[in-house]
Amino acid sequence: MASTIFRSLHSHPFLFHPTALIRRKDVILYCTMRSAQTQMATQEKVKPQVKVSPHSTQSKALEKAAKDYEAVIGIETHVQLNTLTKAFCSCPYNYGSPPNTSVCPICMGLPGALPVLNLKVIESAVKVGLALNCKLSLNSKFDRKQYFYPDLPKGYQISQFDVPIATSGYIDLDLPLEFGGGHRKFGITRVHMEEDAGKLLHSEGGSYSQVDLNRAGVPLLEIVSEPDMRNGIEAAEYAAELQRLVRYLGVSNGNMQEGSLRCDVNISVRPIGQLQFGTKVEIKNLNSFSSVSRAIDYEISRQVLLHSQGQDKEIVQETRLWEEGAQKTVTMRKKEGLADYRYFPEPDLPGVFLTTDYVDGIRNSLPELPETKRRRYEKMGLSMQDVLFLANDMNVAEFFDTTITKGADVKLATNWIMGDIAAYMKNEKLTINEIKLTPQELAELIASIKDGTISGKIGKEILFELLAKGGTVKGLIEAKDLVQIVDPAEIEKWVEKVLSENPKQLEQYRGGKTKLQGYFAGQVMKLSKGKANPGLLNKILLEKLNAKS
């Protein structure tokens, strides 16, 4: 069989990074992603909507027609679970490992090999189902989904069909302010367990294909949304919230560049007021949240244009690909129906039976989830911009929470984390877990500035040393003699010295150029090596500047 598929089969290692190879049933997609060193950014900016036609007249007509139609959008998201071994065998899976080094008779689909379910897969599925407010099926089962593809060694996929492990849930999220803000609630149709297929890599000339079965049998959760989204921004934010959720739960790293989170988008367009859905089109090859948004906006425009021209029959149920370079969708294949998959119960696996005690134990172990955390931060008095930034990354949120428990002012801690600390991490390409600064020392730094021990300027100098080298605030203050000077007599001497050395500027100030106050303050700070108390300095300086000569 293999010889009829491939002219040549090569097993030598091949390089996947920085290009991830993602499989989509009947096509191979190359998805190139930027390296993600930190998860600080909440979302990527969405590019302007792509116009189907370059002609301005047609574009204007399309914009006018778009007001008469609404889009209906649903998303199927595949989440790769970070279990130590695969779904039905003891093979480990490590992204980027040499091809065909994590395989066995079971994941290779050899005759006589029988699957054994990894219980961690069930645990992860229950966690996600509970976090998505789903109704859990205490009795569920696995099914065989039949289809042929060269990197699917068994000729079928073990999945769940009519009795998924979780159904009828929802997810809450907040849109970023740059996208208009506001709260959204999207329904979840189902969550089910299944296994992944392998990978193919085609040669440049197309004369042969390489097969890597390392990923075959890796556990996946497929999360299917209700068709509740209406534009690209909502869909991209939904996908980003799912990524946050699985990272908070610890069930997946959610890295799109590794294929750990993959989105297939279903879109239809209908006249406003019509209850019946239009013809659904599926889009694949979406490797970032911004591409999700842009692909949807393009496809909406394409379908609206066809409707407005009376060519809605041209919209057929199909799978389309998003071409990043051309910024458009193109036909990939006609969509299969359920009958094509010939589902039937998996005979080699028993049913999955959950007890209420088991479910309650997992429910009680869940961490604080993104939505709950955002609402708690709101009650602290933080702005939505602050809330979204802090809650986006669970490690940043944990750093912030620990800093607060050490007694730091909430707003000041937020400002330091979102400002200088975030900038340092971005420049140095570090995560918050990789910096040397601890929450304890950030709280100590904030307290030292607040009580006047050091100035804000000196505080920044200490911060960057703590970020790069570690240490303690008290230790650095003592070692570098950075304690703020609050003795009025000493500050007054510095002020008088600066004024006596700058008679021309003093005369100009008293002549009406009051902006020179900043110049004098800077000179005093320079003379004091930054240690003069700013408030006391400005008070004494003003008195001297405004004194009658």
UniProtKB/TrEMBL annotation:
First-listed, main subcellular location of the protein, grouped into a coarse class: mitochondrion
InterPro entries reported in the protein's UniProt record: Asn/Gln-tRNA_amidoTrfase_suB/E, Asn/Gln-tRNA_Trfase_suB/E_cat, Asn/Gln_amidotransferase, Asn/Gln_tRNA_amidoTrase-B-like, GatB, GatB_C_1, GatB_Yqey_C_2, Gln-tRNA_amidoTrfase_suB_CS
Coiled coil: none
Pfam families on file: GatB_N, GatB_Yqey
Gene3D superfamilies to which the protein is assigned, alphabetical: 1.10.10.410, GatB domain, N-terminal subdomain
PROSITE patterns: GATB
Enzyme nomenclature, EC number: 6.3.5.-
Catalytic activity entry: L-glutamyl-tRNA(Gln) + L-glutamine + ATP + H2O = L-glutaminyl-tRNA(Gln) + L-glutamate + ADP + phosphate + H(+); L-aspartyl-tRNA(Asn) + L-glutamine + ATP + H2O = L-asparaginyl-tRNA(Asn) + L-glutamate + ADP + phosphate + 2 H(+)
Compartment(s) of residence: Mitochondrion; Plastid, Chloroplast
Keywords, alphabetical: ATP-binding, Chloroplast, Ligase, Mitochondrion, Nucleotide-binding, Plastid, Protein biosynthesis
Domain Asn/Gln amidotransferase: 398-545
SMART domains: GatB_Yqey
Binding partners and assembly: Subunit of the heterotrimeric GatCAB amidotransferase (AdT) complex, composed of A, B and C subunits. Heterotrimer of A, B and C subunits.
Function: Allows the formation of correctly charged Gln-tRNA(Gln) through the transamidation of misacylated Glu-tRNA(Gln) in chloroplasts and mitochondria. The reaction takes place in the presence of glutamine and ATP through an activated gamma-phospho-Glu-tRNA(Gln).
Family: Belongs to the GatB/GatE family. GatB subfamily.
Protein name per its UniProtKB record: Glutamyl-tRNA(Gln) amidotransferase subunit B, chloroplastic/mitochondrial
Protein source organism: Prunus mume (Japanese apricot)
Species lineage: Eukaryota, Viridiplantae, Streptophyta, Embryophyta, Tracheophyta
